Amino acid sequence: MSLSVEKVATKPFEGQKPGTSGLRKKVKVFTQPNYTENFVQCILDANGAALSGSTLVVGGDGRYYCKEAAELIVRISAGNGVAKLLVGQNGILSTPAVSSLIRHNKALGGIVLTASHNPGGPENDFGIKFNCENGGPAPDAFTNNIYKLSTEIKDYKLVRGLQIDISKVGVSTYDVAGKPFVVEVIDSVANYVRLMEEIFDFGKLRDFVSGKSTGKPLKMRIDSMNGVTGAYVREIFLNRLGAAESSVVHTTPLPDFGGLHPDPNLTYAKDLVDTVAKGDYDIGAAFDGDGDRNMIIGGKAFFVTPSDSLAVIAHYLEAIPYFQKNGVQGFARSMPTASAVDLVGKKLGKEVFEVPTGWKYFGNLMDAGRLCLCGEESFGTGSNHIREKDGIWAVLAWISVMQHTGKSIEDILKQHWSEYGRNYFTRYDYEECDLEPCNQMMATMEKSITAPEFVGKSFSSGGKSYKVKQADNFSYTDPVDNSLATKQGLRIVFVDGSRIVMRLSGTGSSGATVRLYIDSYERENVLGQASVMLKPLIDIALEISQLPKFTGRTAPTVIT
User: Fold this and answer.
1) CA distance 338 to 305
2) Taking a C-beta distance cutoff of 8 angstroms, is the pair 310, 375 a contact?
3) Sequence-distant (≥ 6) Cβ neighbours of residue 450 within 8 angstroms
4) Which of 24, 31, 133, 218 has the most CB within a 10 Å radius?
5) DSSP letter at 4?
6) What's the rounded Cα separation, in Å, for the pair 391 and 382?
C-alpha cells in the first residue's frame, strides 16, 4: 500500500536561530504545535537538491521528548524525499556515534536530538542540531540558512500514516508516493565500539585495566550521569576491557537524567568527585548527556583541567596506535581554552590553531589534513577520527597514557608542568542574567580594551603585575575556506602569556550566560593552589569588566 505525503500549512516561529551547537529551548517550546515540525522541515530544506534520495542518521541522548521527536523526524523525512534513515534503537545515539555513523555510511548528514549538558525533563531543555556529511556540526553558512528558512516557512511535508516502532532493531521498507523509503533501526553502540577498537589497543588496555600487566587492577569510577553513554560505557569498559561492575555508575539513560544535571564538572559531578576523593581510585571520569564532553580526575580527586588534558594527550599521542599509523598533524583549541597545548605544539614543531568556540570550527582543518587533535575548555576533547568531541575517546586516551607511562594522573601532570610550565585556569559562569545589562557590559568593555592606549597598560593585584600585549574582540579567518567569524569574545593577552577572556554564551535556553575565563601562566611556580594563583588575575578581570556592577552578581553560578 502506497503512503501519501501531506502538506501542512504553518507559520514561522520567532527565535529558531541555531546557536553554537543547534537550537536549544525548553521542552514546552518544542512541543508547541508545529514548532518541531517547522524546524526539522527547515533543516531538510537547507540541504537543497542533495536531500532527494539521501541517507540520514537520526538519534539523541534519551532526554524527555527524544523518542517522540525521532518518530516525528521519520515521518517528515519520508515526506521530503529522503531514501533511507539510520535510527538509533529507542532514538538513542551519542553525538560521537552519530558522527561516526555519518562518516561510515557516507550519509548526507544526521539530525541529533540533544541539549548536550543542559538538564532534561518536561520542565527543562531539549535541542535539535544538524551534522553535515563530514560528521561535524553544520557550519555557520548552513545554520544561517536554516534560520532564514524558519522566518519564511509556509508549510511542512510529512507522511502522517507511517507507523514505526523504533524500539526494535531491524529494517522496514515503505512505499511513499511510489518510491521506496527505508528505516533501519540500528544497535546504538556497535559501530562506535568497532571504531574505538581500531583506534586503541584494547588487548594492551585490557591487560592494564585487569592488572594482568601490572599486578594490580586499575581502580576506576566511570559516571555516565544517566545520559546516553551508559550502554557504550558498559560495552567498552566492562565487556571489552574487563573492568569490574562497580567501576561504572548511572549507566541507564533517563529522560530527566535521574534529576542529575548532566554536565561533567566539579559542581555537577560532585558525587563522582566526593567518591573518588574518599576512595583509592586511580581514575574517575564523567560524561555529559550526549556523550561528547568529559571530565578526568586522578586519585583523591586530583582535577585535570580540560586545557591540561588536551596538552597531555598531545604530548603522548605516540601511546595511541591510531596516531602511530596515521601520523600527527596539527593541534587546535577554542580561543577561551588555556594555551597549554600551544607550548606542546611549539616543542613538537606542529601547527597550532586558535578558533572560535564551537566544534564546527575544527572540521575544515581536519578535512584539509592540518589537524588531528583539538579541545575546548568546556570539557570537550577529540581527534580527527570523527568530527565531534568525544568523551569516551578521551578517557580511553588517558588510560592509554597511564599504561604507556606507568605513572598516576597526578604524576603525569606534575611532570608535564615541570617541562612546559603551568596554565592555571578557571571559568566563572554567571547563568540566566538579564540580557540587556550584559550587552551593555560587553559593549563598554570592548570600547575600553580596543582603545589604542590600552595596549602597554599594566594592572596589578595581590603582588602580581600584568602588562597588556594585545586586546580585541576575537575574529577568525578559516585558513581553509577563508570564511570569517567575528565578535567571538573579548580577549586580553598579557606579555607573559596570561589571558582574560569574556563571552556571552549561545548554548543556554533562557537569559544570558556570562562566561569569564582566566588563564594565568607560571613557568616556575607550578605546584601552587589554583584558587590562590588565579585570584590576582580574577580581581583584575572583574575590575576591567565591571561585571558586578552590570550583572548585580557578587559570585558566579558555577566555578570550573
Assistant:
1) 9
2) yes
3) 471, 472, 473
4) 24
5) P
6) 8
- What SS3 state is found at 518? strand
Q: Tell me if residue 349 falls in helix, strand or coil.
A: coil
Rg value, the chain, Cα: 23
Among 54, 100, 116, 545, the one annotated catalytic: 116
SS3 404: helix
Give which of 126, 132, 124 is closest to 107, Cα–Cα.
Answer: 132
The grid coordinates listed for 354 are 586558535
Active site residue 116: yes
Least Cα distance to 391 among 61, 15, 41 occurs for 61
Q: What is the pLDDT of residues 401-455, one digit of tens each?
A: 999 999 999 999 999 999 999 999 999 999 989 889 999 999 999 999 999 999 9
Residue with cell 614543531: 349
Cα–Cα distances in Å, from 25 out to 81, 126, 424, 480?
28, 6, 34, 33
Contacts 24+ apart (CB under 8 A), 416-421: 416/308, 416/311, 416/312, 416/315, 417/526, 417/527, 418/526, 420/311, 420/340, 420/343, 420/344, 420/347, 421/343, 421/521, 421/522, 421/523, 421/524, 421/526
Q: Which three-class secondary structure string do you get for 405-438?
A: HCCCHHHHHHHHHHHHCEEEEEEEEEEEECHHHH
Query: Residue 527 corresponds to which amino acid?
Result: L
Q: Above 60 in pLDDT, residue 509? A: no
Position 136: which residue type?
G
Long-range CB contacts (within 8 A, 24+) of 27-31 = 27/64, 27/65, 27/121, 27/122, 27/123, 27/124, 27/125, 27/126, 28/122, 28/123, 30/65, 30/69, 30/126, 30/128, 31/65
Q: Is the dihedral of CA 138, 425, 225, 412 positive or negative?
A: positive
55 φ/ψ angles, rounded to the nearest 5 degrees: -115, 135
| pTM of the predicted model as reported, rounded to 2 decimal places | 0.94
pLDDT (tens digit per residue) in 370-415: 999 999 999 999 999 999 999 999 999 999 999 999 999 999 999 9
- Beta-carbon contacts of 68 under 8 Å, excluding residues fewer than 6 positions away, are none
Alpha-helical regions (H) of 220-300: 230-233, 270-278
The SS3 assignment for 449 reads helix
* H or E, element range at 95: helix 95-104
Cell of 203: 588487548
